[in-house]
Design goal:
CATH class: Alpha Beta
Largest sheet: 5 strands, parallel
Structural class: alpha/beta
Strand content: 15-25%
CATH superfamily: Ribokinase
Number of helices: 11
CATH architecture: 3-Layer(aba) Sandwich
Distance between the termini: 27 Å
Shape: globular
CATH topology: UDP-N-acetylmuramoyl-L-alanine:D-glutamate ligase
Length: 310
């Protein structure tokens, strides 16, 4: 078991989620309920890991307003270290999601996110903190030059670096980025093609390109159909548990949190994927992006429920 922190780098937002009670129709009013939670991909993963007893630091940019103060308070209460946080003048970033009645995403808006403030210079100034990491993780909301700085830092130090694409627009920025030595890339089937420079529509060719560009592992997510961990040597597939979805927000973040917990505990790749799918399933069955009802022991017991030994 590692005693070194996972360091998460990227967005910390206020999530406002509007849950429609009827089909969402264009250019008219739809009844909905609303929830407010702390969000942002890197922040979500840091928060979830902290709740699972993994030491974690978050490098992000927050506003100087009450929302920014609230984000800091929520993180510290969960046990997330904020030793290299940036506080900017102005409003904190917000993610506003419109959810269909089945919990799936209809559309979303991102406003006032200041991820461009997470610069290579800021990371270099916090090099000593980064050197303490067991894993480095960044969401693709960060700048490309910041991501490439982290790839180089990972190559130099041997500390594994994971890049989470988030969604199609931020993933597209990394289409021609230097990814040589990247430990893990975690796209879904929409994000995978925009990370590639070729025009191929075939998933095996897209994965082959990224592996040839130096990515060590590509963990391809396909929703309810499960996921596949691809290396040059092999492919490891795992189905997703069958559940009733309440809210899709944060399921991907939770999956990566579960995988990192597995690595923290010294588990093999397949066991890490089982943990990932179990945590994702738990998050899909609650409102919000964090499984606050779970601690490490409870999650480990839930793996046997979703993936019973045969």
């Amino acid at each position: 078991m590692s005693t070194r922190p996972v360091i998460c780098i990227g967005a910390a937002l206020v999530d406002k989620l509007f849950h429609s009670t009827d089909e969402v129709l264009i250019a008219t009013t739809t009844d909905a309920t609303v929830t407010k939670t702390a969000g942002g991909v890197a922040r979500n993963i840091a928060h979830q890991l902290a709740l699972l007893d993994v030491q974690v630091q978050l490098i992000t940019a927050v506003g100087s307003d009450s929302d920014g103060d609230w984000i800091k308070q929520v993180c510290r209460a969960a046990g997330v270290g904020l030793d290299a946080i940036i506080t900017k003048d102005g409003l904190n970033g917000k993610y506003t999601g419109i959810l269909n009645p089945d919990g799936s995403l209809f559309t979303a808006f991102l406003t006032n996110a200041e991820n461009h403030l997470i610069t290579p210079e800021h990371l270099a100034a916090n090099r000593e903190l980064l050197l303490t990491a067991s894993y480095l993780l960044a969401d693709a909301n960060i700048r490309v030059d910041t991501g490439e700085w982290l790839v180089r830092f990972s190559r130099e130090t041997g500390i594994p670096f994971i890049l989470e694409p988030v969604s199609v627009p931020p993933a597209r920025k990394f289409k021609t980025a230097d990814l040589e030595g990247l430990y893990l890339l975690t796209p879904n089937e929409d994000e995978l093609p925009v990370l590639c420079t070729t025009e191929s529509s075939l998933i095996p060719h897209q994965i082959e390109e990224l592996l040839n560009r130096g990515v060590q592992q590509i963990w391809l997510h396909n929703g309810k159909n499960g996921s596949a961990l691809n290396t040059k040597e092999k492919v490891t597939n795992l189905h997703a548990p069958a559940i009733e979805v309440v809210d899709c927000t944060g399921a991907g973040d939770g999956s990566l949190s579960g995988f990192l917990l597995g690595k923290h505990l010294g588990r093999n790749d397949l066991d890490c994927m089982r943990l990932a799918h179990s945590l994702s399933a738990e998050i899909l069955q609650v409102n919000g992006a964090i499984a606050t009802h779970l601690d490490q022991k409870t999650l480990l017991s839930r793996v046997d429920h979703y993936f019973p030994l045969t």
